[in-house]
Predict the structure of CSC1/OSCA1-like N-terminal transmembrane domain-containing protein.
Amino acid sequence: MASVGDIGMSALINTLSALGFLLAFAVLRIQPINDRVYFPKWYVDGKRRSSPKNNGVRSWVNLNFKTYLTFLNWMPQSMKMTEPQIITHAGLDSAVFLRIYTLGYRSFFCYFSTRILLIDA
């Protein structure tokens, strides 16, 4: 059986891994070279065109350091959007993913809040 120290170490490793992947996603998302991966709808709708190949480093790396300070602003904004706005902005798959995510979050909160009440009783 696992000890409390083993469970704590596992929680630490999982938390650091999750934060590392979130940070990698957030930094890669704002790089110009990844626009077609993270924002394909902009190219389909004609809001953005392929960048010229002679821009040098700017076509690969975002050199505007102010964007690195606000790279996680998309998270609260996406949670405040209505479902039709999410479908229009990001697509149906994103709306379904966010619905599943919020359902899991609410289920987790409800389950553990009742478990804590039952343990204390």
